[in-house]
Amino acid sequence: MLKVKATIAVGLLFLLSPLVAEAQQTSYNYTHALEALQNNDYATGKAYLQKELSANAKNGYAWALMCAVYANENKADSAFIAVDNTLRLVPKSDEATLVKAYSLKAKLWTAMEKPEQVLETYNEGVKRLPKNVTMLRYRGDYFNNELEDYARARSDYQRALTVDPGNLDVMCNIGDTYTNEDKLEKGLEWYNKVLAVDPSHAEALLNRAAGYCYKDNYDKGIDDLLTLVKADNISGFRLLLAISDSVPVREIVTERINRRMKEDPKEELWPYTLGSIYSNAEDHPAALKAYQQAFDISKDAGTANSIAKEYYFDNYYADAEKWIIKAEQLARDSSLDVSTSLETHGNILYDQGKYEAAVKQYTASLDADNSDANVYYERGLAYLMWGKRKEALKDMDSSLELADEGTSTIYLMRGWLRRELGMNTEAQGDFRKAVEQDSVGMPTASTFISQHFLGIDKTARESVGRCLAETENRNDFFDAACFYALLGDKVMAVRQLELSIEKGYNSWPIMRDHPWLQSLHGYADYEKLIKGK
After folding, report:
1. Cα separation of 302 and 295, whole Å?
2. Are 170 and 201 in contact (CB under 8 A)?
3. What's 282-327 look like in SS3?
């Protein structure tokens, strides 16, 4: 079966950039179909496309859009027929659309887990369009990223360079093949070639920074990352946070940021970035100080939201609510998206055990932006803790419909809700999906708690043991406490709660109200632990 979200994302490539304006694609039905699909109204879009193709079955552009519709419906055979009609009917002169069609077909095969057909599709595209740089890059990317055949990837990229000798993106791709082969010096040579022409080339800066950091040359790597942060590059920002997990590296990063703050004291970005570094390291007092310095420079909603979070992390709820209300008002006054601040407000209330009030804030956030899978999940948890399981189940359904990744925890929670509501067969399916989604790396609650509900406690005990041997995350210890409480092992459950608290867990109402810990109520050691907080 096609993976809906992946195929929709690819199909929307057709919608996000204009197609060639020819008579056959600018008809009334085609135009209205395109408009409907751009608004995610697939039923209306399909109806218009059916009318268009009934009148003009040779409209390759209409077939392109119909492919996206069929992918959305998980109709694999029909999607392939539609994309093949696109490839057959779109004029040869419109290489841009043909390349997109080949890419879409390859992605469809990827969703079907047919790697041989994926490569065959790219080969067909290169054969038909041998001098199209984008087509060569698509196949090169497949060799590079999926097949790890770096020599053949370089061959495609070099062919692309013969067509477009100054293409910096292709030159960066060549550097990537060497980096992926652990030939880091050769990779850096290519990134330097790119940056000699365009010092702001984001991908080359990011990859060169990663290469420098891999070689422990943090001075140069951090400079590149700060250049990316200045350019509002989220990937550079995330890598900066990641390398700052190490205390020695964090000291270098903070020293470099402080230097930039002195050079440009009116730039909000630097104290804000410093706050993010400290927050990521869970040094909330230092983060709070940096964020407040940023807010003094520029009183914007995002910084106020970050300040509220820092207070919330340390359970200073009154200050957190004061700042999040300020963030909401600033967002409204600036005509900005207020949904993020409303979500944070919901989290602050949820952490205090004010579940009904939290639901109201999450609902307001979704009223402002109903496309965030995480907010549906958070509201679902609030409903669950409030005891409204049917409402919680609906939100878990919505979260899964929107989420592209990280769905194992959602499957676990939906499985438990279905189990509680007597939907045992469906619950078992969710628990199996949770384990499957969590199958790579260290097992988490999605695995060991699902295994418990699947009735394989011996395996679940092994999984939780592996988790606790590899983690230092307080939430993993809390989840282990839930697991042992579900087993009825109160001694081990309380011990895991103690370890979780030692590592910084401080959501006391959740520890009191979580349904998986209900077996501990009345147990002296648990009551003493809760009462003491």
Report:
1. 9
2. no
3. CCHHHHHHHHHHHHHHCCCHHHHHHHHHHHHHCCCHHHHHHHHHHH
CA 437 to CA 445: how far, in whole Å? 12
- pTM score: 0.83
CA 485 to the chain's CA centroid: 31
- What gap in Å lies between CA 219 and CA 213, rounded to an integer? 8
Tokens describing residue 6: 């992946």
- Mean pLDDT across the chain: 92
Question: pLDDT for 223-250, tens place per residue?
Answer: 999 999 999 999 999 999 999 999 999 9
How many Å apart are CA 14 and CA 104, to the nearest integer? Answer: 9
167 touches 133 (CB < 8 A): yes
User: In this prediction, what percent of the chain has a pLDDT beyond 90?
Assistant: 84
- The answer to whether the beta carbons of residues 438 and 419 sit under 8 Å apart is no
Count of CB atoms situated within 10 Å of the CB of 452:
23
The secondary structure element, H or E, covering residue 347 is: helix 339-351
Whether the CB-CB separation of 253 and 245 falls below 8 Å is answered with: no
Could you tell me which of 304, 111, 109 has the C-alpha nearest to residue 123? 109
Measure the CA–CA gap between 213 and 130, rounded to whole angstroms: 38
Residue 207 CB-density burial (10 A; 0-12 exposed, 13-18 middle, 19+ buried) = buried
Helix (H) or strand (E) holding 8: helix 4-11
Which of 339, 415, 326, 435 shows the shortest CA–CA distance to 379? 339
DSSP-derived 3-state class of residue 369:
coil
Q: Where are the alpha helices (DSSP H) in 56-201?
A: 60-72, 76-89, 95-111, 115-128, 133-141, 150-163, 168-180, 184-197
Q: Which two tokens stand for residue 496?
A: 């895991």
- pLDDT tens track for 398-419: 999 999 888 999 999 999 999 9
Q: What is the largest CA-CA distance in the chain?
A: 79
The whole-angstrom separation of Cα 381 and Cα 392 is 7
Q: How far apart are CA 313 and CA 308, in angstroms?
A: 9
